[in-house]
Amino acid sequence: MVEKGRHQHIDRELRSCPSCLCNLDFYIEDEFHMLLVCTLYDELRTQCFQQTWLHCEPNIELFYTILSSDDDLSIFALANYLYRAFDNTFIKYAANIPV
Ligand SMILES: [Zn+2]
């Protein structure tokens, strides 16, 4: 929904995160939520994020710090996270949907 909602002209407030909605938590599934908040990606964040990112509370400053990093390790960490997060196998596995 992060990408599709905008392109399919779905109102922002209707783009709830299906994973969090299963836990009765309503979050708009936007880039901030996907990168820093969604519990679906907790384990992946632990595997990919730099330690300094993991020890910060999710906030807009951290979001901009991660997205504007220009050192190779940070860029690789972010790319690795996004690549794996968007991999359908991971999404299906995390959502307990048979692959
Ligand atoms: Zn979520």
Describe the structure.
There is one protein chain. With 99 residues, the protein is mainly alpha-helical. The protein has one domain. The chain is 58% helix and 0% strand. It contains 8 helices and no strands. Helix 4 packs antiparallel against helix 7 (72-85). The longest helix is centred in the C-terminal third of the chain and has 14 residues, at 72-85. It is globular, with a radius of gyration of 14 Å. The mean pLDDT is 85. Residues 17, 19-20, 27, 33, 38, 40 line the site of zinc ion. Zinc ion (ZN) binds at residues 17, 19-20, 27, 33, 38, 40.
Q: Segments where pLDDT lies below 50 for 5+ residues?
A: none
- Cα(first) to Cα(last) distance is 20 Å
What structural category characterises the helix and strand content?
Answer: mainly alpha
Helix content: 55-70%
Query: What overall form do the CA principal axes indicate?
Result: globular
Q: Report strand %.
A: under 5%
Mean pLDDT: 85
Domain tally? 1
Structure ligands: zinc ion
Largest beta-sheet details? none
What is the helix/strand order? HHHHHHHH
Let me know the number of strands: 0
* Count, helices: 8
Overall radius of gyration: 14 Å
